[in-house]
Design goal:
By secondary structure, the chain is of the alpha/beta class. Helices cover about 35% and strands about 15% of the residues. The chain contains 15 helices and 11 strands. Strands 1-3-2-4-6-5-10-11-9-7-8 form an 11-stranded mixed sheet, with helices on both faces. Helix 2 packs antiparallel against helix 3 and helix 5 packs parallel to helix 6. It is globular.
């Protein structure tokens, strides 16, 4: 039995009976990393020595810790004390944070073992993991294809069993889209449900940390750990802790589900349409009442997002100037030249593009014409979702209009690349929770079904996803497992 192929909840049963030890699980994971990492390249940094030491120390601790001995991978835009955090950008080369992000603290205290930092699109700007400042990550289902982005490293690591659980972040679909491409489960929680303290900011009103796991049960387990109020995060919502695993109990008979036409847009691959429609049939067989609905304002989400997100990024990324931390150009002889040359050499092409777009949108004379209008569209999207949830418990659609595309296919065409997030961006604009779960294969590549919930409706969302998962035919494992 390969321990690395098991889910967290399966491993926890064995660990608590002491049939296996944490060190066995950790070594199994690193054995798999040794076999496949040269092909997949999911990690920017692995920590085998530290992870094995932590696993051995856990044998003296309480086996009832919530994630006792479970190997967890962390996306490289979350601060880890004394461990490099680069956001896959050369401008943060050598930066070692003096503190842990709240979610990193949470998983450590829960008994989990952090095994490394995963690759990503630079500063989370991208949909393919090709914009990393170091190297692209490959999809385990076909190493000539992208794993999705920006949390492509985390999704690929879970798909190929190099980790048991992973943390990702989602600004416009960066958890759900790679989860779809890699055939795993990815949840973007409600904005404010999970602390963003220690998450390196891209677009502060959109960013949200969430779990990427092998199944829905594991997603609920990890949400139990990270889903809580944090006074250090000004956007964190004060509410009682929830038991998300308890929410998996029960059925979905009589649950009202709205199938959003705009989330199966024109140009969607035939295989994606077939997989999503088959998933709808499964939900109906489980007792759900599914109706097609239209939310026309969602069609304006993409242009609105690509004004709001770059505008916030241009402000957030102004701090990287070569003065306080990270890369510093050695060619400058005065302060303005230092700023200019450091940013020119340290930032990649996509980051520079978004900074310029955002700065333009916020500039005098264009603020009202572009940024303010985008905010008004955001309000319309929020209102339209609210109206839909007056009638429906859950909304569904495709996670992505396509399966994983080939590496290099879209990297020179930013507009086509941006369309990869067409189905996920509206949810970030509205701050809603959404989960992507595998619902089939198209030409041998995974397809994701996206379920969307009301604000703080994760329990209902997880129950619907879990019932579907238990009733549907599994898609299997990628060839490298």
């Amino acid at each position: 039995m390969k321990l690395n192929t098991l889910t967290a909840h399966e491993l926890l049963k064995l660990l608590r009976k002491k049939e296996i030890a944490p060190i066995d699980v950790v070594r199994s994971v690193f054995q798999q990393i040794g076999h496949v990492e040269q092909d997949v390249k999911a990690f920017l940094l692995t920590m085998q020595i530290e992870a094995e030491a932590r696993a051995e120390a856990l044998e003296k601790e309480d086996v009832n810790l919530p994630l006792y001995g479970i190997p967890v991978a962390v996306k490289d835009n979350m601060c880890t004390h004394g461990i490099p955090t680069t956001c896959a950008s050369k401008i943060l080369s050598g930066f070692k944070p003096p503190y842990d992000a709240t979610v990193v603290e949470d998983v450590r205290q829960s008994g989990a073992v952090i095994i490394g930092k995963t690759n990503m699109d630079e500063f989370a700007m991208g949909s393919s993991c090709e914009n990393s400042g170091f190297f692209p990550t490959h999809n385990p289902w076909d190493i000539e294809r992208v794993p999705g982005g920006s949390s492509g490293g985390s999704a690929a690591a879970i798909a190929v069993c190099e980790a048991v659980m992973a943390l990702g972040s989602d600004t416009g679909g960066s958890i759900r889209q790679p989860a779809s491409f890699c055939g795993v489960v990815g949840l973007k929680p409600t904005y404010g449900a999970v602390s963003r303290y220690g998450l390196v900011a891209f677009a502060s009103s959109l960013d949200q940390i969430g779990p990427i796991t092998k199944d829905v049960h594991d997603t609920a387990l990890l949400m139990n750990i990270i889903g809580h109020y944090d006074p250090r995060d000004s956007t964190s919502i004060r509410r009682q802790r929830q038991d998300y695993t308890a929410a998996l109990q029960g059925d979905i008979k009589g649950m009202k589900i709205g199938f959003i036409e705009e989330l199966l847009p024109e140009g969607t691959e035939a295989g994606v349409i077939n997989a999503v429609e088959n998933a709808v049939k499964v939900l109906k067989e489980c007792g759900a009442l599914v109706e097609k609905i239209s939310l026309p304002n969602l069609n304006y989400s993409l242009p609105a997002y690509y004004l709001i997100a770059p505008a916030e990024a241009s402000s957030n990324l102004a701090r990287y100037d070569g003065v306080q931390y990270g890369f510093r150009s050695k060619e400058a002889d005065e302060i303005i030249a230092l700023y200019r040359k450091t940013r020119r050499a340290g930032f990649g092409a996509e980051v520079k593009r978004r900074i310029m777009l955002g700065t333009y949108a916020l500039s005098a004379g264009y603020y009202d014409a572009y940024y303010l209008r985008a905010l008004k569209v955001r309000t319309l999207v929020v209102r339209e979702f609210s109206q839909a949830f007056e009638k429906y418990d859950v909304l569904i659609g495709a996670t992505s209009p396509t399966t994983a595309f080939k590496i290099g296919e879209r990297i020179t065409d930013p507009l086509t690349m941006y369309l990869s997030d067409l189905c996920t961006i509206p949810i970030n604009l509205a701050g809603l929770p959404a989960i992507s779960i595998p619902c089939g294969l198209s030409n041998g590549l995974p397809v994701g079904l996206q379920l969307i919930g009301k604000p703080f409706g994760e329990e209902t969302l997880l129950r619907a996803a879990y019932v579907y998962e238990q009733s549907a035919t599994p898609i299997g494992k990628p060839p490298l497992v």
